[in-house]
Write a structure and sequence with these properties.
The chain has 255 residues and is α/β, with parallel strands linked by helices. It contains four helices and eight strands. α1 packs antiparallel against α3. The longest helix is centred in the N-terminal third of the chain and has 39 residues. The N and C termini lie close together (11 Å).
Length: 255
């Protein structure tokens, strides 16, 4: 009994579909691997930075040429009461709330820095805003600099007019600078945000996430994309050829 000859029969719709989708699936797999590497490097850099001694925050620090991301800093100054910014719709364990950003006037030079103090619960019906406690005394606290990876995604243009506290979607440091400097009657605003460490004076509920998706999850997503690409390739070969009949027929002849 002769073995069947291997034949290829390309159906144009199946071929076009596979030609378009297969490279995309492979690309997404490698993209997830790249994201995993980026997240691993970010987590390592954060861990290394946190092990260093905090640097006293001053205006001169903004002129440093090396990366300031996650640099541990010490802040000496005083919170400005009644000038809080509430970052809207920040969920924690499924509960609605805000992240509270407050200005601190530095003891050295009188400049001002925005400090993210963490999360506070809010009224999900939005009938009222939370009352934010503010330390009256001078503070000496630690935190780390947060450098935003890019411009924030906004559903609409933000307005900084109106009463305090100001409820906004995201921080736009450049646009906030004149608003803060006028409101607190201080010197120059430091260009970067400071995230306050847990347990410090003025800290609320602090749980900073350096990376929102772990490298392991990204690698898991990559495996999924590659498996989908492999499955698509196998289905295409089975649909467009008689390879299955060829292999089974050859196996029977060997028996």
């Amino acid at each position: 009994m002769s073995s069947p000859q291997l034949q290829l029969d390309l159906e144009w719709r199946t071929t076009v579909f596979t030609a378009l989708l297969l490279p995309l699936l492979i690309y997404l797999g490698f993209w997830q691997l790249q994201r995993a590497e980026e997240k691993a490097l970010l987590a390592t850099a954060f861990a290394e930075r946190q092990a260093s001694v905090p640097v006293l925050l001053s205006a001169d620090l903004a002129g440093r040429t090396d990366s300031l991301a996650y640099l541990p800093v010490r802040i000496r100054g005083k919170f400005v009461a009644g000038r809080d910014i509430l970052l809207d719709n920040r969920l924690q364990r499924g509960q609605f709330g805000y992240e509270v950003v407050s200005p601190v006037v530095l003891s050295s030079g009188g400049d001002v820095v925005l400090v993210n103090r963490g999360w506070i619960a809010g009224d999900s019906a939005r009938r009222s805003l939370p009352t934010v406690p503010v330390p009256n005394e001078s503070i000496d606290v630690t935190g780390h600099l947060y450098i935003a990876p890019g411009e924030p995604y906004l559903l609409a243009e933000q307005s900084f007019a109106g009463p305090w506290p100001k409820v906004i979607q995201a921080l736009e440091m450049g646009k906030l600078r004149p608003v803060i400097e006028e409101a607190v009657s201080a010197g120059t605003m430091f260009p970067h945000l400071v995230r306050l460490d847990s347990g410090q004076a003025g800290a609320l509920q602090v749980d900073w996430q350096v990376i929102n998706v772990s490298p392991q999850k990204h690698r898991g997503y990559a495996v999924q994309w590659f498996c989908m690409a492999a499955a698509l390739g196998i289905l295409f070969v089975l649909r467009s050829s008689n390879v299955w009949q060829y292999l089974t027929g050859k196996a029977r002849n060997q028996d």
